[in-house]
Amino acid sequence: MKKILIVDDNKDNQEILARRLEHLGSFEILVASNGQEALEVASRSKPDLILMDLRMPVMDGYEATRALRQMDWGKDLPIIALTAHAAEEHREKALAAGCSDFLPKPIIDYSIMQRAIQKHLQ
Asked: In this structure, which of 15, 64, 66, 115 has its CB flanked by the most CB atoms within 10 Å?
């Protein structure tokens, strides 16, 4: 079973994403509330994919992504950035930080998220 780590400081967003993922497939869902916690959870459980919010307290998603990319097992880990800031400059900044993909929030059409996850878990 593939493991997906949801990293978001908003509990409602965590729950909504977890519920949607349950409908999309058979995944083990892990959750972290900030970038620092994401590094700890990811180091322990080695997820197959991370859904990473970019704006969070303690450590933001950009910094957490850069840190994950420094780890041997995190170099090729699919990290999909999630952010309410959907401008092209935010997409470019996320990709430059090492994110594999970028989805604007709120996610209205979950088939877009499903396609992104399927693409990165092949």
From this structure: 64
* Mean pLDDT over each residue of the chain, to the nearest integer: 93
% of the chain at pLDDT higher than 70: 99
Task: Kindly report the number of other CB atoms within 10 A of residue 58's CB atom.
Answer: 13
Domain around 66? 2-120
CATH number at residue 75: 3.40.50.2300
Integer Rg of the chain from CA:
13
Instruction: Yes or no: say if 91 and 102 are a contact pair by the CB < 8 Å rule.
Output: yes
Q: In which element (H, E) is residue 19 found?
A: helix 11-24
83 touches 65 (CB < 8 A): no
Q: What is the DSSP-derived secondary structure letter of residue 63?
A: H
Q: Name the 3-class secondary structure at 81.
A: strand
Cα(113)–Cα(109) distance, integer angstroms: 8
Measure the CA–CA gap between 36 and 19, rounded to whole angstroms: 24
